[in-house]
Amino acid sequence: MTRSSLWPALLLLAACSASASKPPTSGTGGDTEEGGTGGGSTGGKGGTGGTAPKPDAMAAPERDAGADAGTEACEGPPGSLLCNPLAALPRTIKETGLFPMAPDLSKRPARLREYAPDPALWSDGLEKQRFLLLPAGKKIDNSDPRRWDFPVGTVFIKTFFDDGPAGPRPVETRLIRRVGDAFEPYDYNVYQWKADGTDATLAEIEGQRIPVMVTVKKLGAPFSHDIPSRQDCGACHDSNAKVASPFIGFDELRLHGKLAPGSAKSQLEELADVFMKPVTPVIPEITDPDPRLQRIKRWVFGNCVHCHNGSRVVDLRPEVLVMNTVGKPIDASGITPPAGWLRVVPGKPEMSIVYVQARRTMLPTGLRAMPPVGVAVADAPAVEDLRAWIMGLR
Length: 394
Hints:
Elements: E1 14-17, E2 20-22, H1 66-69, H2 93-96, E3 113-115, E4 127-133, E5 155-164, E6 167-178, E7 186-193, E8 200-202, E9 210-214, E10 223-227, H3 230-241, H4 267-270, H5 291-303, H6 321-325, H7 353-359, H8 380-392
Antiparallel strand pairs: 1-2, 3-4, 4-5, 5-6, 6-7, 7-8, 9-10
Helix pairs in contact: 5-8, 7-8
């Protein structure tokens, strides 16, 4: 979702051009049903969603962007991602060229294209704003509507905001880049913002998470939110890449909605110029005759399906969610739930693994909270929907 109603003009991060600024609007992982740590690569950037070198190596090794990344039409300093999206990442986010006038985040390059996936990922109630940066002169190959192919040099930028004393403030900005074609195709990095929002520093996230205190007014007292490690990022995005692209949230289904209330066009229409071919939506909206079950399907799609997509663990996609959960035992090796527990036990949410894991409290031995990464506080409305739906099953 966007942050049109929350974000003062001085601190905007979203828009398709520097002159048309708008206010703003994950992490998850696991490749075992009950909460494994995921199948992403560890130590280096491997496979289709691995991890990057240590920040002291300045992330991806610098290489000649050439025709692949597009060095023309540069809008930033020579070392910026705008001039060379495959360059070694600088230490500060200002040097990337993405937000050169921080803390005035409304001033940014015209090539940053905002998008807001719907359904979105719950991330401790933090607001998020996302941008796509394509290498100059390049477009997305959308020949296969279910698996878009992004050019080398593509960068996805996602900034998380909490509620600061003077309004929303940036906490972290995650970057995912396509840096190659085979051996090390993607890298993952995070910039951690200063408390005053004047700049952000490339974080050391090789193998460990970084806890940061955040304030989300609707959730009450400040709490600790984890900036994920590269392994965490690789696990989620690698899982999604098994059935779609590694760039979670940028797909036909989640771009059907409008970026801002009152917009005359869907996001797919707004972004039509970034694709090689006209986009003809073929994926239906997530629907169900029961409004509560529709909300549940949308929430599960936004928060769980990038891992639980049938590639390695139970398939929780909307069309098979009920069939694969109601009355079904878990099938994860090494996990033995209490007697009588199933993925969903009709009428008994306290014995339903899906509900207990989403609730994140009072889990029996062997089960862990879901999503396992990037979430410390449960999404209370979604948990209540799960409870009420299960109570109504017979």
